[in-house]
Amino acid sequence: MKIIVAIKQVPERDAQIRIDAAGKWIEESGLQYALNESDAYALEEALQLKEKHGGEVVVLTAGPERVGPTIREALAKGADRAIHIDCADLGSRDALGVARLLAAAVKPENPDLILTGLQSDDLGQGQTGVILAELLGLPHSSLILHVDKTDSGLTVKRELEEGWFQSIELPTPAVLTIQSGGNKLRYATLMGIKRAKTKEVRTVSAAELASDATPVAVLERVALPQKQKSTQMIPGNPKEAAAALVEKLKFEARVL
Amino acid sequence: MSGIWVVIEERDGHVSRASWEAVAAGQKLATLSGLAVNAVVLGAQTESLAAEVAAKALGKVVRIEHPLLAAYTADGFTLALQQFFAAEKSDYVLFPHTYQVRDYAPKLATRLGQALIGDVTAISDGPLFTRQLMQGRLNGSYRHSGNGPCFVSVQAGAFRADEAQPGTAAVSVFSPTIEPAQIRTRPSERFRGAAQTVDLGSAQLIVGVGRGIKDAANIPLAQELATALGAELGASRPICDNGWLAMERQIGSSGQTIAPKLYLALGISGAIQHLVGIKGSQCVVAVNKDPGAPIFEAADYGIVGDLMEVVPALTEAVKAARQ
Question: How far separated are the first and last CA of chain A, in Å rounded?
């Protein structure tokens, strides 16, 4: 089975966020980046499918030069090769624009399966995989926790709301968006990290893929959220703060 | 005729709460734009669902009916709505932001050359649509550009279901053309995971654990606080994903919805998937080392600090107060 995993590099979870001077996006200088969490689960699912059924795992990502270490991380975990769509204006494209880039790069590869994370930790749109399927004319299913290969295609376990699940049968080639938690993530081994250095990373420029970059959904500005509630921040060292909080919960909020 | 269309979702034979919220969002957009609000219901048999919707202040209610729409599939719903919106010009199409909508609305928008503005929390003049970015640390305002309908999905709880105004709407039927071969996925009936033995939904005191706890070895710290309080222990998704606590203790959109008197969120950053699950809490306390964590936006009381120090201090303070 030939599997393409679309991954994204996103700001680290704990990164301190500052709005840029134009108020259009965040200040990127000095930010630390990491592999998007649900994409890590998509990669894990792909590696396990390859271990069971053989084949090839190709990682695909779009972004500027800084995505290099994230690609190497995926290769170190066991992906066979990578395609990097060199794109400096990823942030100004909408989900459709980004999926168009990915679709143009996927098409000549003719994979059996395309996996991607459920949603990105930065924009959180959760649309890329679904749009990619539509652009490629393939069936898809989203929020997938488990993938079984069958004679005629795939049987997948899909998460529904409030603790319900559903299984879905679909033919291949197909696109699945992977929910976190279905597998245990692996770490890269020292050997894997060494091997990653010799694996193929093919770079294609966004311009070469000649896809339409004009957004339909335009991000006009970003702002810090306004508080929904007036939060009482309790100062002091841990002991003082804890005592003051318990006092307030008992006599002010009356919930203890 | 153009206007605003709301796509209604069914839950247990009735209009889902999230759909009423989407209707309320549509009515808000109507006051900003001067357009009429209409609704569609989809399924194999939609008469009673349509009747429920038609009791609201809407222009028209359309039943999009076909035997192949009995069970939800992305292919079936996309085809049906694509055909409907080809025949019926629309300016805005609104959805509740449910797992089902996330599965097909981006596909439908793509087919019509559009992009969905998803998980919207507010609509303002322009119109501008606000949605959260960076796990709730930022708000982004989006504008729809270009020709064709603007697709928007509305976050659960962002609009009030009871603000959907009553009225009387005319009901009509639209019959899409769908061939069995066009539906490529075969869904099963839904099923439950492992038996639920923890009922967080009715617990009065809950301690929730998030990533800030750092390691499975630190879970007992939170457990000790829960025990001192007589509280149930819950968790955000990553803790259950890692197997540090059982999946049935997960709080949020994919886990349990809670409504306790007191919810203590320990090291939980406050991603929206978690916040929607705790909205019914009477009093929320957040402890987090990051003063910018969005959980503080939703908290009544906050302590900025290291869990390893604050949680044991809280346990002691609770024990002292209970003596």
Answer: 57
